[in-house]
Amino acid sequence: MGTVVLTMKASVIEMFLVLLVTGIHSNKEMTKKIKRLKFNVPQINCDVKAGKIINPEFIVKCPAGCQDPKYHVYGTDVYASYSSVCGAAVHSGVLDNSGGKILVRKVAGQSGYKGSYSNGVQSLSLPRWRESFIVSESKPQKGVTYPSALTYSSSKSPAAKAGETTKAYERPSVPGTTAQPVTLMQVLAVTTAEATHTTLPKPSPSTASTTSSPRPQPMGHRSREMDLWSTPTYTSSQNRPGANPGVQRQDSSGAAFQKPVEADVSLGFVPKEELSTQSLEPVSLGDPNCKVDLSFLIDGSSSIGKRRFRIQKQFLADIAQALDIGPAGPLMGVVQYGDNPATHFNLRTHTNSRDLKTAIEKITQRGGLANAGRAISFVTKNFFSKANGNRGGSPNVAVVLVDGWPTDKVEEASRLARESGINIFFITIEGAVENEKQYVPEPNFVNKAVCRTNGFYSFHVQSWFGLHKTLQPLVKRVCDTERLACSKTCLNSADVGFVIDGSSSVGTGNFRTVLQFVANLSKEFEISDTDTRVGAVQYTYEQRLEFGFDKYSSKADVLNAIKRVGYWSGGTSTGAAINYALEQLFKKSKPNKRKLMILITDGRSYDDVRIPALAAHLKGVITYAVGVAWAAQEELEVIATHPARDHSFFVDDFDNLYQYVSRIIRNICTEFNSQPRN
Length: 678
Fold this sequence. Notes:
Rossmann fold; disordered N terminus; disulfide bond; 6-stranded mixed sheet; alpha/beta; elongated; neurogenesis; Ferric Hydroxamate Uptake Protein, Chain A, domain 1
C-alpha cells in the first residue's frame, strides 16, 4: 500500500515538474513575442494618407511599389496631408521604390503646394490644405516616444465607441519607465487567433467596388497586427492583379490579395468605416508655372497599327498626369488625324488630369492616311478659339506626333500656324530609312514645320518603345514660356506701318528727332519674318514708300533702315498719305497680323482726312495719330481709331516725343490683351 502511495506521489511530482518546465518555456516564448511586438515599427500600405493618422509624429515602414502614380502626392518637400505618406517619401528621396522605414512629422497647413517631378513620382499642385507633413530618415530623436501602433481618425469606429483606440501596445510616455503590462490571457487570445486564422474569406462579386471614379480607390489600411497575424488570400490566375482595383491589390512580389469582407477589431484590424475616405479628393487648379494652351495632334493613320496607337495613348495619359492640368495651369485638348482631322476634346472639355486621362483612354483609332498638314491647318483655323477654351493670355502650343512621315505637305500649313502665334512641336517616331526616303512627299519636313529650327521644338525617337523618354523633356519645354518664340503677343504679332510727315515745317533737325521716335517705338517690338514686321512711308504733297513689311526681317536691319531715311520737305497732304499707306503698305499685310498705323504730323492737312481715315478703320487698320506743335487736335481725333483718347496724342515740342513711347506701347498691348488671340 505504501509503495502504491509513493508511486502516485512520484507520478504527481513528475507531472508537476513537466507542467512547470512547459510553463516556463511558454512564458519565455510569450515574453519574447511581447518584446518583439513592443518594439515593432508599424507598417502601412502605399495608399495611406497622412491625414488619416492622428499621431503628430511617428515612424512607419512602407512597402515596395509606392512609386506608382495612383498613389497621389501633393506638394514638394512639404506635403499636404491628403498625400500618400509612402508616395511622398519616394518623391522626397528618403525612400526608393523598394520601401523601408521613415520618420513622419506633422506641420501646419500651407497656403499652397507646388507640384514637381522627382525620383520617378509626379506630385501635384494644390492651392491650400489644412495640414501638412514632412518626411525624413527613420532616426529616432532623443526624448521622443514613437507609437508602436498608429491611431487612425474614424468618428464611426466601433473601437472608438467602446472607448478603445487602434493602438495595441504603447511605449512608455517617459523614457526609462516601465511599459504598460500585457496580460497572459491577451497574448494567449492572439496566439489562438494565429493558430486558427489561416485565410481570409473572399468577397462575393456583389461586394466588389463599383465606384465610378476614374482613379483607383484606396483599399483601406491594414494595421500592424493584421500584417503580423493574418495570411492574405491570393487570387487565382483568373483574378489577375489589376483586373479590378477596387477588389484586390498587389503586394511587393506582384501577387494580389483580397480585401477582407469584415474587419475583426479584436485581432487589430482597422474598422470597416476606416476603409473609405471621408473627405472628397481635392482637385488641383493646375500648375501656375505652366499656364499654356496645348493641342496634341495624334497619328491615327492605318499604318500605325493598334499596338503603337495604344502606346501613343499611354504617352498622352502620362503627359496629362505630368502636366498637372487645371484652370490656373495648363489646359490640353486632343485632335486625331488620318484622312481628315477631328477634335476629340478641346481646351475647356476637361480641366483636371484625372478626367483627361479617362477621356484619352476612350479614344479609338480613325485609320486612313497620315495627313498631318491638313490637321495643322484645322488646328490653326478651329482649335485655338475663345469658344474652345483659348484663354488669350496663355501661349498656344501644338504638339504633332508622326509615325514615320506625313502623307501630305506640312510647310505652308505650319507657316500659317506659326504666324498665328502657335508654337509647333514635332515628335517623329521611326522615321524613313534610306530606301524609304523616296516616298516622303516633303524632305526635311520637320524643320519646315517647327517654330524654330534650333532643336528645341523637335524630337526624333528611333522606336515607339522609346517614346516615354521624351515625356519629361517635352513637359519642360512646353512649360518654358520664355522660350516659346512663336507665341502671339502684343509685341510679336503685328504689321506696324509708320506714316511720317516730311513737310517743310518740320525741318531737318526735328525730322531726325522724329526718326529717333520711330526707332524707339520699333525697338519695343519683336521683329522677324514670322513676328512683328515694320514698314514706313514718308509724305509731303507726295508720298514715298521708304521700305515695306517684307523688306527687313530683323530688328537691327529695321533700325538701320530708319536711320537711312532722308528728309524730303514739301507740303502736308495727310489724307492722301493715309490712302497711299493703305494701298502700298497695308495691302501687303498678312491676313492674320494685326495692322497698326502710327502717323506723326506737325500741322493741319491741306486735304480732307475724314474719308481716308474711315477707309483705314473699315479695313481693320488700328490707327494711332501723334501730333506735334501746330497739328490740329480735331484732325488727330478723326484719324485715330475709336476711342480717340487711347489712340491720339499731342505733344507741344519735338523734343518731348520720347515721353510718349511707353504710353503708346502700353495702349497697344492693353488693346491686344482685351481681344481674342486669333
